Amino acid sequence: MTGVEASNPDAAPAPGDVLVGAIVGYGCVVTVNSPPPDGWLLCDGSAVSRSRYAGLFDVIGTLHGSGDGTSTFNLPDHRGRFQRGVDDGTGNDPDANSRLAPNVGGATGDMVGSIQAPATGVPATGRTAFTTDDRGDHWHPVQHLPTDNSWYKLAGGHYAKWNPDSPDSGESGEHTHTVNGGGDRDTCPVNVYVNHIIYCGTGVK
Question: How many domains in the chain?
Answer without folding.
Answer: 1
